[in-house]
Amino acid sequence: MTVAAPDARLVLALDAARRILVFTGAGISTGSGIPDFRGPGGVWTKRQPVYYDEFLASDDKRREYWEYKLEGYPLFVRAQPNATHQALAALERMGRVQALVTQNIDGLHQAAGSSEARLVELHGTNRWVECVACGVKTEPAPAMAAFEKTRAVPTCGACGGWLKAATISFGQSLKKEVLERAFVEATRCDLVLALGSTLSVHPAAAIPLTARKRGVPYVIINRGQTDHDELATLRLEGDVGEILPPAVAALDRSATLA
Fold first, then answer.
1. Any catalytic annotation for residue 123?
2. Which fold has domain 36-78+124-167?
3. Given 109, 123, 202, 228, which residue is catalytic?
4. Among 37, 77, 100, 129, which is most exposed with the fewest C-beta within 10 angstroms?
5. pTM of the model
């Protein structure tokens, strides 16, 4: 496999930064076998999502939700971090990442070595299931196995409430403290690096804009158009897995030689 030459403009942008706000979307995980949701052929072009109020109100909708989660569970269990996740972990080890704000729920940033302390998971995570009544989080495997066997919607062992993945469903509000932290990080960064996102989902898409309004450089790498293309100081079209890792490797080499 031929390794692409690093984009010199990207290397310069990364080299000039010490407090990078990384913002990641589904496009960085497709290389790990995680399907996109909104792109052409994405998950939501093939099925209708179950809204949060529907989940709470209807047993049929709860079962539909769990059928979808069970269908995708083996894929999430098998998924491994790809070169983009690893490059971001390396960038953090260099001391350049202030925060990593992600729309993804796959846990691959942590698996690659990105620290929990710098990670902001806007839409929650598939790594846990959570009781909608008391908020207790547990490992998903027992709930998945029970549902596969009985097709009865799993309930909380602590209070009997309904279990769902610890993710933000359609129609469910983002957690206030998580969203507030992301916006605070946008007031402190010196570069925004948006990767694999169409930057079209709000309020998440407003986070990079908070930094851009301060005059902070804004680098966007994505395959396909984004809503922020005209605002970028550097816009790179293509697979982030082919563009970012060579630039981070070049930055690492230059730091080693310095």
1. yes
2. SIR2/SIRT2 'Small Domain' (3.30.1600)
3. 123
4. 77
5. 0.92
